[in-house]
Amino acid sequence: MTLIKSISGIRGTIGGRPGDAFTPIDIVKFTAAFGRFIQQQTGISKLVVGRDARGSGEMVRNLVVGTLQSMGIDVVDLGLSTTPTVEIAVPQEGAGGGIILTASHNPAQWNALKLLNSDGEFINDAQGRQVLDIAENLDFDFAEVSNLGRVTADNSYLQKHIDQILALPLVDVDAIRKADFKIAVDAVNSTGGIFVPALLTALGVETIHEIYCEPNGLFPHNPEPLAENLTDLSALVVDKNADMGIAVDPDVDRLCFVMEDGAMFGEEYTLVAVADYVLQHTPGHTVSNLSSTRALRDVTINQGFQYHAAAVGEVNVVTKMKEVGAVIGGEGNGGVIYPAIHYGRDALAGIALFLTHLAKSGKRISELRASYPQYYMSKNKITLTPGLDIDGLLVTMQQRYKDVPHSTIDGLKIDFEQDWVHLRKSNTEPIIRIYSEGSTPEKAQAIARQIMEEIEAIVGI
Length: 461
What we know:
Radius of gyration: 22 Å
Strand content: 15-25%
Structural class: alpha/beta
Number of helices: 15
Largest sheet: 7 strands, mixed
């Protein structure tokens, strides 16, 4: 069993012993710590809670809501919802923060508490450490019976979220309706099965082929929206002669597309395509993390703007976006962050912007994909001896490539003329993750292999 306590929240597997897994005792402790933190930081005793459809969700919801009530905190319960929907609801409700009950793309045995500040954005590193300290010291009190919090169920935010998307100036419902798209949807039997078809209908899409859209939490495949997990969606697109397929993860903050021939558009290119459209109409800069495709940089520069890289992690990307005034940003895992609606990965906003772009382009989705720079990524890792000085190893590699453009804001990224490689250590295991990208799959793998061989030689593997 696994329990991971990090700055962004707590996640783990259901069942097992306290402290070793995501047990009721751990859920109560960390929920109380976060409630205490929000009260201290904002003076507001009100939180928004929403969850994905995984099987443990109701149990976790009961523990979280009950704990917050016991601390005198009022709860606005959105029930089955999405991560971006909860992010939108927090400031609209005037809440001190929010908790999303989801383990995102992790399998069904996992669940988690994702923690939001009063702006509906993920708490930062320093705030996360404060929450962990409060939990470790059990530094919280519970309210007396006359001061218990109240719970209000609110199912209005599905429509509120959709309305905000429809109101975006760059979303053109008429263009989408006239395009008469036929779209297949795989929502991995989570809340995307509620939200994505509802959004598509509001956008004027009349032909929707649903697969795994019943929000019963019975994930029919690994919920991470990768090619190897979307074979049924690909087959459905081809069988139904659909224009495209749409896949989201269980909490609907990651988005990827399937092309009309059943091939993947590529989750790295979700952000590239949306950014291309946004930049055509909104002057400004872009941001993605260091492990995302170089294609976003190319598209940004081609339109006369500046691209900026951030450390891996949504909160780091958002921080960089605010710093440079980016008009669009996100992560190469299919995460689109569009500040015009809110600072958070939002697959629903991404769908509306992408469909508008595609409709206005007059192209098939495969033709749109072919219009972007072609890059290929290779993802590898090296498992090292426990206790090895990985930071020192990265410094050694940095010295080897000191004359090549590089970044050390998150591990070590080396930017060669035609390729790049990014080395990051795991926070939980003696592992170095090695992501590389090149103009062909062979070039991407070759640069990764070169770096891996150098590391192995240094440490004597």
